[in-house]
Amino acid sequence: MGKILEIEGLHLQFGGVKALDNVSYYIEEGEIFSLIGPNGAGKTSMLNCISGLYQPTEGSILFKGQELTSLKPYKRTSLGIARAFQNIALFAHMSVLDNIKLGRHALMDSGLFSGGLYVGKASKEEIVHREKVEEVIEFLELQDIRNVPVGKLPYGLQKRVEVGRALALEPELILLDEPMAGMNSSEKDMMARMILDMHELKGMTVVLIEHDLGVVMNLSHHIAVLDFGKQIGFGTPEEIQKNPAVIKAYIGEEAI
Fold it and tell me: CATH number of the domain that 44 lies in?
């Protein structure tokens, strides 16, 4: 398959604070890759750099061999990168369907879905994009709540809609920032299954930030570990579990 994302010597600094300090790793195409570490380790900052919300102080981010650091976020979206946020960024008054449709609009040549009467190219385009939105709703099992305003949904379902908005872009690389946060055990199991389906059925490369180490170790092909902005581990789940620096800084002595 080859490498889809390569991070090389990445630094991110805010004044005197080093959010990321010389971080380097790579992600293979089609794998589930996890970023772990304590709170404040720099995990979300890393996703912000990949998606274009932050500009690294120095270093390189290559997506399929193309340098990303000078590209605006929407350009990265058009290349095949999508992001679901840790803090839900949905429109609470809008329905599940409309929120996911908004996620799709970046791929449309004729603007947003309007629900109005179309002729010619615009109508054909809307039909195609609407079919893709319906596929996302079915994939995430949201059919029964498609017309419910997002603000009336429990938190776990809102997180699923947040992921759905990213999936609507049909990305090659999807960045999931704590998609299971605030979920109960059954909701976590369902989200884990959906992440596996993204990998196995849709062939997506998944980058996952998750604090549940059981989930991380079960799902991931490779893991990078950050601590105070520094990378202290990179490898398979088995290698990470045996890494002394990771055990000391994050997993804890009891994991030995």
Answer: 3.40.50.300
Q: Is the CB of residue 33 less than 8 Å from the CB of residue 222?
A: yes
Q: Extract the residue ranges of the chain whose pLDDT is less than 50.
A: 110, 112, 114-119, 254-256
Global confidence as pTM: 0.88
Last residue of a domain, one of 138, 170, 202: 170
CA distances from 12 to 15, 19, 46, 47, 73 (A): 10, 5, 9, 12, 17
Residue 85 resides in a domain: no
The number of distinct structural domains making up the chain is 2
Q: Are residues 178 and 68 in the same domain?
A: yes
Classify strands 66-67 and 58-63 as parallel, antiparallel or unpaired.
antiparallel
Q: Which domain holds residue 129?
A: 90-170
CA distance 9 to 108: 35
Q: How far apart are CA 2 and CA 163, in angstroms?
A: 26
Q: What is the pLDDT of residues 52-85, one digit of tens each?
A: 999 999 999 999 999 999 999 999 999 999 999 8
> Is residue 243 included in any domain, yes or no?
yes
Residue 46 falls within a domain, yes or no? Answer: yes
For 22, residues 6+ apart whose C-beta sits below 8 A from its C-beta are 9, 10, 11, 59, 230, 231
Same-domain pairing of 60 and 105 = no
36: burial class by Cβ within 10 Å (0-12, 13-18, 19+)? buried
